[in-house]
Write a sequence for this structure.
């Protein structure tokens, strides 16, 4: 061993985008000369052996990976050879971010805003059940699943700005198509990080959608026909102009096609950013993707997919987001409907309140989650622990639905008898049997006795005063008892007035407050889990990882979510719309208490699944060795190899 020369100290080299900053030898090999003194008559010393290369750990960057930065080719802004100088001012991360935010805003307005607040109106206009409108709401996610894996795998090496230009075209086309039923159905007969900023804009989009859609619902559905009507927004037959928002979104989305198409594949400065990235890849994940050529061909897709699916931490995080997505999309779709029916509000008021709670709560949660993770410089495992904590808190707050429900107001023939006559479940009673009332004509009136009736006919009313708003009725054979509505000089014997009875429930403010807190803690885990997913997989597989996450999130979360919620809400219906042909349409009255408890059951089950998989991810995660550990392992490996060589030479000499 004394004949061995010393070893040069290893030096740091720049890390590749795929691996942490590791320590390796400063030269490609280490020369080790062993110079024993030959004995007299002994054979000459063996020829010098090839230089001993230090063992490398799997994943240590090689020349091919260090050269891979050349793939981030930067270019000017323009179309082919047409590259105006004025456009180069936009060829910056800020310029690209501005247009990306507009696209995210438009997408949020349409998918998570206008569609959700229009559900109740569309149900009534086209006589649809909630389970079917839930499927309509999920159609975006179904289409997403068909393309996400392909786009995420190929798009990683494709021209992303042009992909976004195509996305703008398709989003605008979808918004236009969604509004077309209004024009083909005829007149309504009512008497029949940059990442954080990007995420923030995605949250702001639904907010704008809820506010814009809520205001549009105060306009009559056929506002374009410019004809007078004699009903107001408080009338249950009122339908708002839900379709206008989709036309606005169509124009906004298509206006982004040209800007996105002119951006280069990689913005200036991309290579420098990629060079400085440090990986926190889950230790048990396969390092096959560190091969510089891996993923360049579509034939690598199955292997890449298998590699990610075997990453247990990644899969746990993905499954936790799936269960969260199921309830968040379910509530985003049907929360306005829930508020409308539980607390007796109009569709526009319920949509505005839902947007006031959902969107600021989600945005605040996303921002707080990102800020806390950044401020405390959390590593991957601590980020997952933080997500686990917020999930537990949101689970506890979910029980608000069990305590904020409201009993149904008395409804004759549904929850209340006709003054002791008739049967529950039958709108016809002796007091109105002679009126030949139509079940297809829903026009509720509130009796002076505080009981709601399906229509003036079912209340047995024979006379009315139409000059007063709301319209009043009297001489009603089914209404008895003390009159609580103040009579007017024109109708001394007033017994009923048009519209639903006012809700006496006082649970709306506490419900909105607690639900807002639940939304905040739910979305506080959103950004941390996304960051954890990006950190626990290999750099070259991040786009595919997000593609897998989004696909499973749709398949297990956002697609079944609205369908499950819609079917659940339908199961609580106690009064269906039955048309002249006897076909079932939309639901008029729901069992409020049963609806609340059913939604609590779904939410609690999903939250428990979220907590389980978040906790399992924390338990299974194994961080990669630190820079110091890797350096020590490299030096130990080289020293062991050199010592072994020296021992072998010494043994040969002694022999």
């Amino acid at each position: 061993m004394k004949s061995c020369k010393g070893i040069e100290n290893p030096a740091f080299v720049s890390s590749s985008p795929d691996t942490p900053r590791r320590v390796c030898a400063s030269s490609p090999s280490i020369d080790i000369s062993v110079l024993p003194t030959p004995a007299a008559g002994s054979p000459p010393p063996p020829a010098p052996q090839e230089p001993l290369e230090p063992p490398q750990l799997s994943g240590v960057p090689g020349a091919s990976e260090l050269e891979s930065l050349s793939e981030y080719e930067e270019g000017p802004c323009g179309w082919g050879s047409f590259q105006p100088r004025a456009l180069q001012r936009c060829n910056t991360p800020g310029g690209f971010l501005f247009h990306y935010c507009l696209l995210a805003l438009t997408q949020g307005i349409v998918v998570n805003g206008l569609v959700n607040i229009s559900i109740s109106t569309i149900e009534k206009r086209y006589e649809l059940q909630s389970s079917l409108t839930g499927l309509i709401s999920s159609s975006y996610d179904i289409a997403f699943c068909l393309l996400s894996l392909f786009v995420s795998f190929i798009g990683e090496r494709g021209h992303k700005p042009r992909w976004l230009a195509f996305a703008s075209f398709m989003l605008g086309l979808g918004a236009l198509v969604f509004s077309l039923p209004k024009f083909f159905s005829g007149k309504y007969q009512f008497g029949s990080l940059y990442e954080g900023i990007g995420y923030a804009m995605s949250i702001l989009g639904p907010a704008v959608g809820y506010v814009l859609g809520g205001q549009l619902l105060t306009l009559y559905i056929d506002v374009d026909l410019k004809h007078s009507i004699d009903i107001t927004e408080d009338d249950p037959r009122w339908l708002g102009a839900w379709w206008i928002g989709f036309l606005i979104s169509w124009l906004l989305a298509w206006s982004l096609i040209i800007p996105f198409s002119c951006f280069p594949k990689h913005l200036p400065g991309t290579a420098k950013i990629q060079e400085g990235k440090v990986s926190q890849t889950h230790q048990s994940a396969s390092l096959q993707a560190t091969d510089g050529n891996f993923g360049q061909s579509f034939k690598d897709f199955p292997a890449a997919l298998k590699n990610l699916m075997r990453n247990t931490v990644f899969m746990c995080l993905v499954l936790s987001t799936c269960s969260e997505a199921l309830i968040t999309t379910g509530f985003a779709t049907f929360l306005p409907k829930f508020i409308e029916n539980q607390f007796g509000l109009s569709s526009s008021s319920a949509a505005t309140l839902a947007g006031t709670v959902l969107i600021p709560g989600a945005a605040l949660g996303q921002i707080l989650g990102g800020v806390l993770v950044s401020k405390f410089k959390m590593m991957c495992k601590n980020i997952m622990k933080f997500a686990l904590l917020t999930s537990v808190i949101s689970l506890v707050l979910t029980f608000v639905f069990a305590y904020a429900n409201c009993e149904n107001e008395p409804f004759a023939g549904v929850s209340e008898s006709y003054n002791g006559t008739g049967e529950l479940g039958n709108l016809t009673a002796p007091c109105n049997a002679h009126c030949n009332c139509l079940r297809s004509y829903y026009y509720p009136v509130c009796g002076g006795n505080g009981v709601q009736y399906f229509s003036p006919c079912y209340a047995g009313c024979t006379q009315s005063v139409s000059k007063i708003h709301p319209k009043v009725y009297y001489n009603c054979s089914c209404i008895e008892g003390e009159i609580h509505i103040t009579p007017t000089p024109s109708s001394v014997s007033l017994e009923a007035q048009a519209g639903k009875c006012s809700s006496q429930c006082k649970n709306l403010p506490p419900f909105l407050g607690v639900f807002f807190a639940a939304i905040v803690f739910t979305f506080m885990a959103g950004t941390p889990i996304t960051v954890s997913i990006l950190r626990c997989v290999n750099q070259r597989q991040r786009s595919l990882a997000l593609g897998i996450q989004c696909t499973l999130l749709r398949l297990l979360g956002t697609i079944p979510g609205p369908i499950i919620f819609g079917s659940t809400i339908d199961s609580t219906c106690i009064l269906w719309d039955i048309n002249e042909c006897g076909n079932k349409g939309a639901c008029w009255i729901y069992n409020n208490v049963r609806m609340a408890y059913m939604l609590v059951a779904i939410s609690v089950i999903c939250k428990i699944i979220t907590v389980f998989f978040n906790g399992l991810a924390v338990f299974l995660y194994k961080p990669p060795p630190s820079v110091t550990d890797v350096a020590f392992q490299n030096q130990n490996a080289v020293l062991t190899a050199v010592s072994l060589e020296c021992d072998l030479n010494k043994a040969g000499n002694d022999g």
Summary: The two ends are 16 Å apart (CA to CA). The first strand starts at residue 11 and ends at 12. DSSP finds 19 helices and nine strands in the chain.
